[in-house]
Design a protein that fits this description.
105 residues, mainly beta, 4-stranded antiparallel β-sheet
């Protein structure tokens, strides 16, 4: 029988400051990261975001050059239970959202 699968938002941070933001995959589940979307909210020289899972870099945006410039990345990166999805923000004022699926193994 087919199973209905719904998207999950792992993180959504508005106006993030320079640093790292994390989501730990809950016990008994597998996370599949599908999308990382970012927009530069503040006037600045450039901002960027990067995605990693348990210390492995998977990708990131080029510098977002001006206010309201945006970037979207799509993939299928898998994190097992207990692994950490990490988003690095390279400049103050970047808003981002990470979404995908939480599945049972």
């Amino acid at each position: 029988m087919a199973q209905t699968i719904y998207s999950t938002r792992f993180m959504a941070i508005g106006g993030a400051i320079l640093g790292n933001y994390t989501f730990t995959v809950p016990p008994g589940l597998i996370a599949i990261v599908r999308d990382l979307d970012a927009v530069l909210d503040l006037p600045s020289s450039a901002g960027s975001v990067s995605l990693g899972i348990s210390g492995v870099f998977w990708g990131g945006s080029p510098p977002l050059p001006f206010r309201f410039s945006s970037w979207s990345g799509r993939g299928r990166n898998v994190g097992a239970a207990g692994e950490v999805i990490d988003v690095g923000v390279g400049l103050n004022g970047v808003s981002f959202c990470v979404s995908g699926y939480l599945l049972t193994p």
